[in-house]
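Now for one protein, fold included:
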Amino acid sequence: MTPREEIQSISNAGCEALGESDLVAAMQSFERAVRMLLPEHDDIAPVVYENLGLAYLNLGFDQAGVRAFNRAVGDAEPREQSLRYLVTCSARAGLYLDARRNLERYERLFGAHPDGFTTVALDRFYRVERERQQKVTIL
């Protein structure tokens, strides 16, 4: 089995685990597949990272999800799902400026975010969080 075939086989096992809601097994499979990626696998890497991000998202590991979806999105034309969930993980992780920047990119490429994120709402969350942190600092 070639390294590419092995990565694809491990990723397929992760997808099956994800489909069966075995999130830990899915995460472990995708993490293993990611460790095997080489530069010649650039064509399949975004999907592997996206699937890893989905496992992290469903486990509530938002910071890790941000890292995985950032790798999936990259600088090129991103897959809709990768950018969509990058916005979600960034917002849930409290990375509002990143969430806003990626939301603007999402809206330019795909239109309104299907989960209801808007720049106005993210700006509001950011202001509220900043005020909360300032109050904590003052105390």
